[in-house]
Write a structure and sequence with these properties.
By secondary structure, the chain is of the alpha+beta class. The protein is built from 17 helices and 22 strands. Among the domains are: about 340-430, Sulfite Reductase Hemoprotein, domain 2, CATH 3.90.480; about 435-575, Sulfite Reductase Hemoprotein, domain 1. It is globular. Bound molecules: siroheme and iron/sulfur cluster.
């Protein structure tokens, strides 16, 4: 543990917060400002929301000497991204009643609401509570939404894994009574509060757990602090998990001691040990993660600083846990197959494409929320999904690729779903290019306070241009994983893109190449700080060469590494080595 004097400011805020209460109640009651107190902005993350301001309006308001246009983003906790149609309808209603009339599916399988004014936070959280949904641990230095593979073809296994995601999420949830008191009007107790796992200072940084069912890696398992790879026994039932540790994407431009890292598989845990292994790993990070420097505080750095053998020793010493040798597994891809598939339970599942996760109704000019978001003119996506939820009797599921699954549809109900899909022009994988279906962008402007460049609002138009390049090269049907973020924090997992774009400044991106198609290898920096013309000029000859010279079934990421266009990144620690290309293609 760090010396108290050296602790980062956020550590002091947590310690002095009385288990995440701080002065949030007073901040909410203060009608003189749309903001909350500075310290409270750190604490409300644990309750699932961030203070933001509308960056489209920032300079205008500054010139007019007005307070920033403060608003909040609220993130739900939704293990494995599963909700009932009734919950969907409630969430849809909340977005229209309290937020900006849009919903945002996130890369961690949940919803974010944007543009919420301070006074609406409590009614919003109460409306979620009314349908058994919450925002506890949506953000903050604790365990985040536990994501799990949606693999609809293996329905029974999916149900088991969903169960596990829920169990782990509940087990690692912060427990203080602050949430119930602040949002749900629970009586304030005079008994002292406590946090059995986290203690007063919670974790040094955010913590993430994912579960994948091979061969699908749609959760990008290796980007998580803990990744659990589902292993089945001879009977096809879930037998346990291979445990992978130390994944994370975030880094800072120009700071070479920050880097993305993929989780290392350290062994196999049978089901009866899984929860203990997960809890002990969290406790190791709680006690040994860096509490002085938040840029060095993720579990990935704790592991690289101490070594994997030390982790094994810790598991043994703390909880008598000795992992077996990891079992064989194989991943095929990290994207979502779109359209209908039949599950092994005889039910049907329809995966619909949601471009960059933004669910809205777009007007005849192709805009939503006062022109802030763009989409196809007249596309009533939000209404279409609402109408689907009204007639659907199975589950709705969100994917880590920003998509939505209408799950568990009986054969007899398929045609009614299909009619609505056709009526609203929803995208079942038949309307756009494979490249667009394989692309994903983070939120960035106008809400994200950390964005350096556009992402969600820019990638669609860049994809249209790349579509032309792909089509000219005869690759229209090919899937290349493209990821874009507005900064190097990595929210759309750009370092797992076969082609990755990371914002540097307005209109300028770093271009990364060479991640594996199944999410098992990081990419590497190829060109720095380039605009759209240079991006197209750089990528066109590489895509043409890929069309002509690739081996049978070779993915784009593997091709650029094999042909030496980019050096291979073997480990996070070496992410910044050998950047650029030996000779421009
Ligand atoms: Fe993220 C911070 C959005 C997934 C790494 N992320 C943010 C904030 C809250 C900005 C901020 O701190 O002020 C963004 C809010 C934008 C907005 O206006 O909505 C934001 N992150 C998102 C979402 C919505 C992106 C999306 O397009 O879906 C994702 C919400 C996930 C969820 O439901 O919980 C999202 N963020 C991720 C992922 C991907 C993942 O977890 O699989 C990562 C990379 C994996 C990882 O954690 O390393 C990620 N977000 C970050 C980081 C860098 C963390 C680090 O270790 O350095 C930050 C900044 C920070 O924590 O300081 C960040
Ligand atoms: Fe914001 Fe950066 Fe995350 Fe994009 S990657 S949402 S710009 S923090």
């Amino acid at each position: 543990m760090s010396d108290d004097k050296q602790l980062s400011p956020v550590e002091h805020i947590k310690l002095e917060s009385n288990y995440l209460r701080g002065s949030i109640a007073e901040s909410l009651a203060d009608d003189l400002t749309g903001a909350i107190a500075d310290d409270d902005t750190q604490l409300t993350k644990f309750h699932g929301f961030y203070q933001q301001d509308d960056r489209d309006l920032r300079s205008e308001r500054k010139t007019a000497k007005l307070e920033s246009h403060y608003q909040f983003m609220v993130r739900m906790r939704l293990p494995a991204g599963v909700l009932t149609p009734e919950q969907w309808l409630a969430v849809d209603d909340i977005a229209r009643r309290y937020a900006n009339n849009t919903l945002r599916v996130t890369t961690r399988q949940t919803f974010q609401f944007h543009g919420i004014f301070k006074q609406r936070l409590k009614p919003l959280i109460q409306a979620l509570d009314a349908v058994d949904l919450d925002t506890r641990g949506g953000c903050g230095d604790d365990n985040r939404n536990v994501v799990a593979n949606t693999n609809p073809q293996r329905s029974a296994l999916h149900a088991a894994v969903h169960d596990w995601s829920d169990r782990i999420s509940r087990h690692l949830l912060w427990k203080s009574r602050a949430y119930d008191e602040l949002w749900l009007d629970a009586p304030v107790s005079s008994e002292p509060d406590h946090e059995p796992l986290y203690g007063k200072s919670y974790l040094p940084r955010k913590f993430k757990v994912a579960i994948a069912i091979p061969p699908e890696n749609d959760v990008d398992l290796f980007a998580n602090d803990i990744g659990l790879i589902a292993i089945t026994g001879d009977d096809g039932e879930l037998a346990g998990f291979n445990v992978a540790i130390g994944g994370g994407m975030g880094m800072t431009h120009g700071e070479l001691d920050t880097y993305p890292r993929l989780a290392t598989v350290i062994g196999f845990a049978p089901l009866d040990q899984t929860l203990a292994v997960v809890e002990t790993l969290v406790a190791i990070q709680r006690d040994h993660g860096d509490r002085e420097n938040r840029k060095h505080a993720r579990f990935k750095y704790t592991i690289d600083d101490h070594g994997v053998d030390w982790i094994h020793d810790q598991l043994d010493e703390r909880a008598d846990l000795r992992l077996d040798k990891a079992r064989d597994y194989h991943f095929d891809r990290n994207g979502d197959p779109l359209g209908w598939v039949e599950g092994d339970n005889g039910k049907w599942h329809l995966t619909l494409f949601i471009e960059n996760g933004r669910i809205a109704d777009f007007d005849d000019n192709g805009t939503a929320h006062y022109g802030q978001y763009q989409g196809p003119a007249g596309y009533k996506l939000m209404t279409g999904l609402r109408e689907l939820a009204k007639i659907h009797t199975g589950q709705m599921r969100l994917t880590c690729n920003h998509n939505v699954i209408i799950a568990d549809v009986a054969e007899a109900d398929k045609s009614a779903i299909e009619e609505l899909v056709a009526h609203y022009g929803l995208d079942d994988g038949s309307k756009n290019s494979t490249l667009r279906y394989s692309a994903m962008a983070c939120v960035a402007f106008p809400t994200c306070g950390l964005a350096m460049a556009e992402s969600e609002r820019y990638l669609p138009s860049l994809i249209s241009k790349l579509d032309d390049v792909m089509s000219d090269a005869g690759l229209s049907g090919d899937a290349i994983v493209v990821r874009m973020t507005g900064c190097p924090n990595g929210c759309a997992r750009p370092f797992l893109g076969e082609i990755g774009f990371v914002g540097k400044a307005p209109g300028k991106y770093n271009l990364y190449l060479g991640a594996a198609h199944d999410g098992s290898r990081l990419n590497k920096l190829y060109r720095e700080n380039i605009g759209e013309d240079e991006i197209l000029a750089e990528l066109t000859p590489i895509i043409e060469r890929y069309a002509e010279e690739r081996d049978d079934g070779e993915s784009f990421g593997d091709f650029v590494v094999r042909t030496g266009i980019i050096a291979e990144t073997t480990e996070g620690r070496f992410f910044h080595d050998n950047v650029g290309s030996p000779e421009p293609a």
